[in-house]
Amino acid sequence: MFEENLIIKDWRKIDLSFGLIYPNTYKMGMSSYSIRLLYFMINSNPNYACERFFLPENIKYPAFDDYSSINRIRSIENRLLPTDFDILGFSVHYENNFKNILWILEKAQIPLESEKRLNNLSRNSERYPLIIGGGPAITSNPLPMSKVFDLFFIGDAEPNLTNFFDKFLDFKSTNYHIEDFFKSVSEIEGIYIPSIDNPTNRAVLENLNQSPTPTYQLLSKSDNKKKIFEENYFVEINRGCPFRCKFCLSSFHNYPFRNKSFDEIIKSIKNGLNYSNFEKFSLIGSCVSSHPRFSEICEFILNSSKRFSLPSIRIEHITPKIIQILERSDIKTITIAPETGNDSLRYDLNKKISNDSILRAIEMLRESKIKNIKFYFLIGLPKETDDDILDIVTLLKSIEKLGFSKNQLKVNINPFIPKLNTPYENKCQYYLSENLNILLERFKTLENELGSFSSIKIKFKHIKRTLNAARLQALISLGDSSISELLLRYYAYGATMGALRRAEKELGFSIDDYFRKIQGGYKPWTI
Asked: Which position among 197, 256, 307, 313 has the lowest Cβ density within 10 Å, counted as fewest Cβ atoms?
């Protein structure tokens, strides 16, 4: 593996060291725009050094029982240990990465609980890095991780990162008390400190042009055929989503929807062309096709002899003109998200797209050079019935009849995960123990019905494991600070479903009772 635009600094000439951690594998982390953005922003200051850490492959939980060397978690740039840094910042995108955060801290011989680390600091004994977290899962709800992290960034990082570092350097140089530092940074909008439980508003970067597109981007070059986006040059197009689907994290936690200006995007594309060696741009955003000059952006890239990739595209944005542009970029697979099999349930999600419009769009794609379509559906939605599940089958049968060949339709079926501060935040009824079998049967129905479709490749396996993971993810998504101790024990006992049941029993905690409390209107975290 070779990395282009790697930044390695001389630590004798810096004032602040920041360990940027993506709590999953290198391949996943290097496909995250936030990692590239933060790496670029922090390293843009000559007095700061930002280096990256990722989760090693093939680990065993907990780290105490993983007999591999501590050297597995050295930084990419200078091969330093996590304890060598002033600050360790975790970019947390998914609730189920919680166990990976704990593994990294434990393997680095850093106490898992913030209180223990801070007690050491107040006694002037061994000093540990400040442990901070941010990202979508944190903004949605930091409370289940409140025993572990010292502080959280809620919302966009750009408005408050510089101010935070200034206050940290003041704390580092004068060595005043940590509580005074917390009090000082708690005045920054978008920073939440569990130990003082300060009122917190979500930080919002109102003008997306003020978020810099990394000019010299980290590009990972390897011979690995199973690449995601690590060799692509990322350009953020917009942030948030204008459509306000009731289940969608981005629509509500990244509100308001913001586009970068066309001129700023073109400038970023030109910088990529001038300073980096790559074949393809990745256009970043929850709904890139909603940019008012989306087709012009794509045309500019194509006219620059480069190709581009998209995360997904709104079904109603698929037009003959857009298809022609996608064909020119040699896009082989397009991703769409019908979510449901019928109009009524889809409209209830506030996704105002009809089956007829889906079929019209897919018919256009069928006649194009784009032969593969990836679908995302949700099950376990509020108001969902067994008939709604059969409607997914009916819709896909209608699509297959358009004439697709073997495995050209890739179908992902995911359990719905309720998120705090969205309209469906208390819709967790399917994760009560007595209702899990309903989800299981609905998965099996889809597996049996779709298995005979030659054009469909079903993208879900290990259904029981998927549902158990979804139930845990829902608990973390909706949890309060009492969940923190449960998760610490779950991790310590091996991070299995058996470990979770053991932790429940020891603490006298009932996940079912907690979900019922949420259903009754309990709201642990509001932004």
From this structure: 256
Residues 10, 16, 20: CA angle, nearest 5 degrees: 90
Q: Is residue 512 part of a domain?
A: no
Residue 123 predicted with pLDDT over 60: no
Taking only the tens place, the pLDDT of each residue in 281-333 is 999 999 999 999 999 999 999 999 999 999 999 999 999 999 999 999 999 99
* Shared domain check, 177 and 266: no
Question: How big, in percent rounded to 5, are the helix, strand and coil portions of the chain?
Answer: 45, 15, 40
∠ CA 385-389-393, rounded to 5°? 155
* pLDDT at 249 (0 to 100): 87
d(Cα 262, Cα 401) in Å, to the nearest integer?
40
Judge if 152 and 278 occupy the same domain. Answer: no
Distance CA(322)–CA(133), nearest Å, equals: 38
> In whole angstroms, what is the distance from residue 203 CA to residue 93 CA?
17
Are 267 and 124 part of one and the same domain? Answer: no
Answer whether residue 125 shows pLDDT above 80: no
Name which of 486, 439, 425 is nearest 99 in CA terms.
486
How far from the centroid of its chain's Cα atoms is residue 86's Cα? 25
What CATH number is attached to the domain comprising 390? 3.80.30.20
Number of domains forming the structure of the chain: 2
Q: What are phi and psi of 239, to 5 degrees?
A: -140, 140
Question: What is the pLDDT, as a whole number, of residue 527?
Answer: 76
Domain that holds residue 355: 208-465
Task: Identify whether residues 111 and 233 lie together within a single domain.
Answer: no
pLDDT above 60: residue 128: yes
Is the Cβ–Cβ distance between 201 and 189 less than 8 Å?
A: yes
Q: Do residues 238 and 99 share a domain? A: no
What digits encode the pLDDT tens for the residues 475-506?
Answer: 999 999 999 999 999 999 999 999 999 999 99
Whether residue 13 contacts residue 45, with contact meaning beta carbons closer than 8 Å, is answered with: no
Strands 16-22 and 48-54: parallel
In terms of domains, do 237 and 178 share one? no
| Rounded CA separation 483/486 (Å) | 5
Residue 120 to residue 117: CA distance in whole angstroms: 5
Same domain, 312 and 218: yes
| Backbone torsions φ then ψ of 489, nearest 5 degrees | -70, -40
Element (H, E) at 235: strand 233-236
The Cα–Cα gap between 154 and 142 comes to: 8
Angle, to 10 degrees, between the axis of helix 320-328 and the axis of helix 355-366?
40
Domain membership of residue 376 (yes or no) is: yes
